[in-house]
Amino acid sequence: MTINIILIDDHLLMLMGLKELLEKEADFHVVAAMPDPENLEKIINSHQPDILVLDVRLKNTNGIELTKRIRQKEFQLKIIILSGYHYDEYIEASKQAGADAYVTKEETTAKLANVIRQVCEGEKVFPNLQPELPSETLTLRERDILKLIANDMTTNEISEALALSKRTVEYHISSIIQKLGADSRVGAVVNAIKKGLLNL
Known about the structure:
GO terms for molecular function: DNA binding. The chain is of the alpha/beta class.
């Protein structure tokens, strides 16, 4: 499945660089890269995008207010706020406005690409507003996947069971292995049992 994306960022170099990097992903197609949202509604109606990625700060508006306006229009697309700031108030305001994710610009393109796929699968992705949690803390989705790994299911089987793309499952498995300080799926299961995170 091809994911159609609109990008909005008033920094032209950032905009074109991000467009070029995202289009290297086989399942992404950037249908528009815009320095301002002036003709956004027309472009949404024309291209029916799946994802809108927009900067939190724009010249004549901001990403949070723009998100509110888009939600009022009831367009059926996912919205990711891209920001150079890891401020709790920005993150919370983005949630309240109706955004589906908030990604800081210090993250890698690979991370943004994975967030785009997660959001397309119906997930919400926001930085934690609380003090940093222990590294072994798993999300509910990761716990579900860990249980299936423990049941000796393959990536393809997990993908089918949870109705997630294979790439999204692979991303979650990588995160699980890292959080549990393991170097393999089996090691992650063993460490999870030791930590009391998994009962067989």
